[in-house]
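Assess this one:

_____
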Amino acid sequence: MQIKRVGILLAAGALLLPAAAQAHISLHPNTIPAGAFATLDVRVPGEQEGAHVTKVDVLFPPGFTGVDFENVPGWSTKIIEAKLAKPIVEGGETIDTQVSQIVWTWMGPLGKVENGQFIDFPLSLAIPSAAAGRALEFRTVQSYSNGAVVHWISPSLTAEHPSPRINVTAKGGLVEE
């Protein structure tokens, strides 16, 4: 009887470990057509025992000329732009910058993300038309109240800390979660 209980506990533990190991910063939906206007959620889990998330710094791939963000209680948002090498014209307007980075910083007391919790940071944006058929990586650095820093920057999906990404389909394709 004792051996049976230990076997059941070990099996249950084995089922829980892969789920915890797979938790990481992700983007939802993760498949979006080129040129589409979309609401993209940056989903950030808390994964440090006894600590909470204090900062999320997302590096954008080239081509995002405008991004709107939703105010998330307890968090400040800073959008950092970079000059385009060559200005573009969209809708009769000349655009000379692109979004290079967004940084969310926890100001408290609301929105605290502890171990086993997550938060979504919604963005409204247009997917670059030139990205059709590619995966776009959003390399991210996540900081915690205990000083831990996790770099979600690996291009490999099987790495311990893969970068969050979206798959961009041809124009007019379906948006998938």
Remarks:
- Helices lie at 2-22.
